[in-house]
Amino acid sequence: MTAGSAVEFAVPEALGGGAGPTAPAVDGIVYLDHHATTPCDPRVVEAMLPCFQGVFANPASPHAAGRRADELVQRARQQVADLLACEPSEIVFTSGASEANNLAIKGAAEADPQQRRHLITAVTEHKAVLDVMARLEGRGYEVTYLPVQADGRLSLERLRRALRPDTLMLSLMLANNEIGVLHPIPEIAALCRRRGVLMHCDAAQALAHVDCRIATLDVDLLSISAHKAYGPKGIGALYVRRRPRVRLTPRIEGGGQERGRRSGTLNVPGIVGFGAACALVAEQGPRDAIHCADLRDLLLQRLRQGVPDLRVHGSLEHRLPNNLNVSFPGVDGQQLLRHLPHLAVSSGAACSSPSHDGSYVLKALAAPPEAVDGALRCGVGRFSTHREIELASDQILAAVAHCRRHPAPAAAACGAPC
Ligand SMILES: *Cc1c(COP(=O)(O)O)cnc(C)c1O
């Protein structure tokens, strides 16, 4: 189930297998929640240490100590830019992809010289896009939320019909955080360019696994986050195209850092860690992708052996190599999770949400309600092992068998002991 999409890494067949130094581990737990966050690679931690051991000055300070910190920032900015194949001056460091999304969408809307008032996005976007769009609607902007096809991908034809003369921007993610589905971003960006519409892409989930070079994607704005790519939390970036220049108003004003686009003293340790994480992805991303796809395919194969009628949500062909999102007919996701105490996975359904109304992403695929409630999202990573997949699939199959023998009453499923 590898790859037809233009955005996926071209992978030399000779590569493959796991990678890297000793895996960061959580005692007694198999960690399969890499879409929520990834562990910090020990080599990233190593790269960050000087920032806590002497190179602590403010990189904006003109003295020698400040210059030393600034050198580390410049090097890291180059590492991030190298992974995206863009100019270092096109990188704006932020606190993460949420802030980058806010800056891209609100910033471009406020700064548009033509004052266009229409934006387009998809119903399956991350909340850090959808809630920004809702905010703009409250300020008089008009937003079109495009539906997706049954496989989770956007239809170019629907997009074409949604474009208007006053459309300012399309915001569309590269890879979905629940179902891992990849949109055909290069084709979509080309369409936007022809129509004079800005293209923003949230690539938080994609950065570690998919080709995110700007020349490939051809987007104007790209949001990324370190902690989804084996870097530290609290640091990310927005790529902002310089030619032709994309204008943005800042979200945070003050000292004028990041060319006035994002004030605030730079998070030097975070930035250095982000740079190191990007350098590692540049070096071993293709190998990680093969490793993850092998383990993901093994997990699916083992689960299917035990539960032949399991349902896979979203396209298997156009998908992150590390994502699996499945449901088991007749099994409630929350009940299933309670029987998986040694597994870090998540349910498609947000049990904590007051309305218990389940994943809006799975609903957008027109999945039946019981599948929406029963979904399990598994995300493998760089440090996942064959043995962990065996353990995980054994545990999931045992839990599914238990839940099928003792089904939870549907209404009381959440929080009910069983
Ligand atoms: C994790 C994630 C975000 C938020 O990133 P932060 O760096 O945690 O703010 C945004 N979009 C997608 C698709 C994500 O997966």
Structure description:
By secondary structure, the chain is an alpha/beta fold. It has two domains: 23-40 and 285-405, Aspartate Aminotransferase, domain 1 (Alpha-Beta Complex); 42-279, Type I PLP-dependent aspartate aminotransferase-like (Major domain) (Aspartate Aminotransferase, domain 2), CATH 3.40.640.10. It is 36% helix and 12% strand. It has twelve helices and 13 strands. Strands 2-8-7-6-5-3-4 form a seven-stranded mixed β-sheet, with helices on both faces. A four-stranded antiparallel β-sheet has the order 9-10-13-12. Strand 5 (167-171), helix 6 (185-194) and strand 6 form a beta-alpha-beta unit. The longest helix has 39 residues, at 268-306. It is globular, with a radius of gyration of 22 Å. The relative contact order is 0.17. Mean pLDDT is 91; it is low at 1-7, 9-20, 349-355 and 411-418. Bound molecules: pyridoxal-5'-phosphate. Pyridoxal-5'-phosphate binds at residues 96-98, 126, 128, 173, 177, 202, 204-205, 225, 228, 236. Pyridoxal-5'-phosphate is lined by residues 96-98, 126, 128, 173, 177, 202, 204-205, 225, 228, 236.
Q: Would you spell out the secondary-structure blueprint of this structure?
A:
Layout: E1 30-31, H1 42-48, H2 64-84, E2 91-94, H3 97-111, E3 118-122, H4 127-138, E4 142-146, H5 156-162, E5 167-171, H6 185-194, E6 198-202, H7 214-217, E7 221-225, E8 236-240, H8 268-306, E9 311-312, E10 323-327, H9 333-338, E11 343-344, E12 346-347, H10 360-364, H11 369-374, E13 376-379, H12 386-405
Parallel strand pairs: 1-11, 3-4, 3-5, 5-6, 6-7
Antiparallel strand pairs: 2-8, 7-8, 9-10, 10-13, 12-13
Bound molecules: pyridoxal-5'-phosphate.
Pyridoxal-5'-phosphate (PLP) binds at residues 96-98, 126, 128, 173, 177, 202, 204-205, 225, 228, 236.
